[in-house]
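Case study 2.
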Amino acid sequence: MKSTKHPRTAGHTRRGVLAGAAGLAGILASGRAPVFAQTTAKKLVFAHINPAPESAAVAFTWMAEEVNKRSKGALDMQFYGATLLSKELEIMNAVKAGNVAIGGPAGAAATVFPEMGVFLVPYLVRSYDQAYRMFNGAIGDQLDAQFQQKYGLKVLCFFDYGFRHFWNSRRPIVEPKDLRGMKMRVQQAKVFADTINGLGANAVPMAWGEVIPAAQQGVIDGADLPIVNILALKAYEVSKYCSMTFHNYGPTVNVINLGIWNSLSKDEQKLLLDVSREAQARIRHDTESVDSLAKAKELLEPKGMAVNAADVDAFRKVAEEKVWPAYQKQYSEMWEQIVKTQA
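Prediction:
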């Protein structure tokens, strides 16, 4: 949506100007409207790894438009999906340096922020409700404080790519044994490789930009993605099967350079946080609403994929035996906090 500018009428009388000023002063004094400085707009460049129709890109396009409209010209947020920087780590380095105001690590969150690796341990996060309570609650606040102190980054919102499922070109994956001998692409954080290797496949670390060509050429047999991104990134064009394993919950985060954040007024900061939380809700809805066997069949089978249910309990049992022990020891304090949110 575009900002609507109201033309000023020419030839105001002195009485009219005074009355208008008094009225504005009354509104501001009452706390009914935030104060945004009517000076040159503060430019906020926002880089994201994927374009629409990826759910986060859609929500962040909306977010930029809303920030610009609601700030009444005080802020100029410019969103770039997959056009400014081509890799997650490039985006994060630019945000840390302040060359780009806002961005996030997308699926590489645990690579950029090792503190987030614990949430990717397979089957530790059991539901969307649990995840939302964690990241919009005390755990999210704790991570925000850590990121500010350690990385010079302020969290605007946590969001997610949903639970990950396997897609491949060889066979349906119903039980862990079905993964044997498969070469599955993983992101570069260690927890992803440990998950895939632990569950029985062979992990192949690879940046997303290489995945589709690798699948086409047989370098990999498949990979894992949430349903929302199997759709948005067109993985169905290079795979035949989607197996609903729900093995990793994929949280990530949207951050702003702390120096840039501190340069904003309190009203501008509140506006960014408010609209970020609204964008978060949009992403969560789009992600969660397609993450079921019935919906995946409805959306993917017309595109040529066979969608099957998997024995989630069997996969969870293997994960608990082969993957959990090392991470429970590594993240002992946060692990206990996460377990408490499962109830």
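The radius of gyration is 23 Å.
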